[in-house]
Sequence to fold (226 residues):
Amino acid sequence: DTGVSQNPRHKITKRGQNVTFRCDPISEHNRLYWYRQTLGQGPEFLTYFQNEAQLEKSRLLSDRFSAERPKGSFSTLEIQRTEQGDSAMYLCASSPGQGAFETQYFGPGTRLLVL
Amino acid sequence: EDQVTQSPEALRLQEGESSSLNCSYTVSGLRGLFWYRQDPGKGPEFLFTLYSAGEEKEKERLKATLTKKESFLHITAPKPEDSATYLCAVQARGSQGNLIFGKGTKLSVKP
Fold:
């Protein structure tokens, strides 16, 4: 039984470049979440999918951020025109999608450094 | 505004020295509370879910309890491998799934 996987694990980019991260949830999990975590802080919610539908977006998700889950399986998070303030760990989580309150299982994260 | 506060920020214990971590929350109706463990450079690892005041959950040396305003994570006779950051998160009623996390407590257990 594999857990949530994320790729790449690390990404270094220059300011102004675009980056894309991928998340593969636990098999048959219908809900998928993206969070961002900066040093010394807890994760902060970015967005959430139920199957392929994006149901909730945080105010943190500026116009430069876009997330997709085209077939209700894996998801991508793209950041356009990266800024140094985007440097963080980007975490993906999934849950079964059967009830209103479920445990979210996290992946290992993608650490982004914007130079 | 929904908020989670964890204390202390950091805790250093000797192996075998029991202690407790605190998570206090302000939320517009609690649907549930989670505890996670996070090792450096890794994603949070699920420990416990608590739904209602008075509930308790145990796993090895860890025990989580919940009241109407706070949760405690008790660590009994800790070992060096228990060293990690412990995160508390809540889900509010009306939320579609977004968790509100505290900043965590960084625990160091010395042999």
About this structure: The CA atoms of residues 67 and 77 of chain A lie 4 Å apart.
